[in-house]
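User: Can you fold this complex?
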Amino acid sequence: MLELRGVTKSYGGRRALDGVGFDVAPNRLTGFVGGNGAGKTTTMRIALGVLDADAGEVSLDGSPITATDRRRFGYMPEERGLYPKMKVGEHIAYLARLHGYAKADAEASATRLLTQLGLGERIGDKVETLSLGNQQRAQIAAALVHDPEVLILDEPFSGLDPLAVDVVAGVLQERAAQGVSVLFSSHQLDVVERLCDDLVIIAAGTIRAAGPAEALREQHAGRRFELRTTGDVGWLRAEPGVEVVDFAGGSAVFDAQTDEVAQRVLRRAVSDGAVLSFSPRRPTLAQIFKEVIQ
Amino acid sequence: MSTSPSTTVVTAASASAPGTPSFAQSAWLVAEREIGSKLRSKAFVISTLIMLVLALAGVIWGGFAAANPSRTPVAVTGQTASIVQGQKGLTVTTVADDDAAIALVRSGKVDAAILPDATSPVHVKIVAKDKTPTELVAQFSAAPSVELLDANPQDALLRYLVAIGFGVVFLFAASLFGSTIAQSVVEEKQTRIVEILISAIPVRALLAGKVIGNTILAMAQIIVLVAIAIIGLGVTGRGDVLGGLGGPMVWFAIFFLFGFVLLASLFAGAGAMVSRQEDIGSTTMPITMLILAPYVMVIIFNDNPVVLTVMSYVPFSAPVAMPLRLYLGEAMWWEPLVSLVILVATCAAAIVVGSKIYSNALLRMGARVTLAEALKA
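Assistant: Here's the predicted assembly.
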């Protein structure tokens, strides 16, 4: 478990991070969401140790992180970069060796991973000859080649076509299933929503929400319900304590002031005719995001 | 598996299981990559080959030009005139007495005077100005004694050529590999791979690896150039020049080693201060000046002992000026040692300053980092 507690960082007079704290649990994918300049990259760099925090601490399994622990981290920086003139296979193997792999092991690991990521044919090509999407895959290989215990990926999905997103998502899920703690940031809220077990939302340098995605949805669900019936639900508009959000003949989406009101609406609907479904409306990640960053 | 075989020559003893590589192992991996990527750059290989061919051609041409058999002007007196009769390759001036002949030698009108000398096996001695006329001596069946009027000073042209030689080699190697370091620092910064690198190894290991790798390349080039100079002089029969140059060339190599590490550390710091290759000139220019200055000054002041003496103690120009002074025989035996101590101390300071700038500026993207900011914190 990677834990950040009270991490604070200022650049000049501007406070970039203010008491940032959250957990990245093993076996889970943690999505890190925030607007531009919210502090995602700074947080990730501090977690990784390439940047020092002014205050606060980062710990792994309860003890402060040492430089040795950080060798077991995999990192994909926000802005991509590999040596353009190096061959893909050699490059990835070089990074594995920097992490302490013997030459043969490094080469084997690089080949295996690049093949898994669909770059098997390009291992002997120079990085600069790869398309952007393929460079991105090589970049992910760079973060994974040394079998890290903690993965920190800054926007791993940006610039990938939908197929590549699936390939990369599959690899990340596989790693998480093997017990790796995975933290990744993304602007693509739909991808985050689809993949993540846990969510961290940051705005203006402070954590606005953090926890299991399901729990966050529950928490921000409010009392919005969707009702579908075979009859007409026009009567909803006159119901006290109800505000209709969306209406179309037999179905409607509405906010109830209390749970009591919701139950009353359901009883009335049942007594009026056949109810096809009645369910709480879970907010989408985009909705939660907008709500919490305000 | 379609990976091409790695071209690395030396494999650091790395742990078979992924453990933490030592500082030295990390630095060596970086150095290996620096060397490998340079050796695989076609531009580098071709330009190096061209430079080596030019150097070889220059040495050989210089050697032949200097050894060009022209007629040697000599002065004789009535007593020795008969000796040179029938000798080829001589332009003979006959003068009244020994003093007149020596005066001609002094004035440079003739290369040598052939004068009677009862103690000499061939009953003549040869008087020359500052160097033994070997071809003339070779014409006698037994070697006559040779007297030099001005034994010490090296000849001015050779002095100039040696000055330029040390200057050019220093300038080329230091600026080529120095700017390579700066460019590779900026490349890593610009492509952001530096973030991955320093999440794997300590910043100082990365810096050390870059400096070590490029120092090895630069030293290799220097050694090849020295070898070319030796071979070229040997081939052209100018082995006599080697006798005087051998020691200074060794000193040059030693001074260059520390001088280059000094410059390399500064180049690395300067490279780290900018984020784009286009901006690299703005921070490396002062260092380029430090390389250019000794070259220009040694050419202008190679006959000015005071300036040369000062230059031979200033760390940036010592690698050029001290070997030159040694060659000219103007330096006492202890002088290179003192100068080397100063150089090594400055080198150590440069490593501290360079790595401080490097560490502080490495992750600062965007606008150029000022020197004050880079040295702070």
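Residues 156-190 of chain B form the longest helix (35 residues). The first strand of chain B starts at residue 72 and ends at 77.
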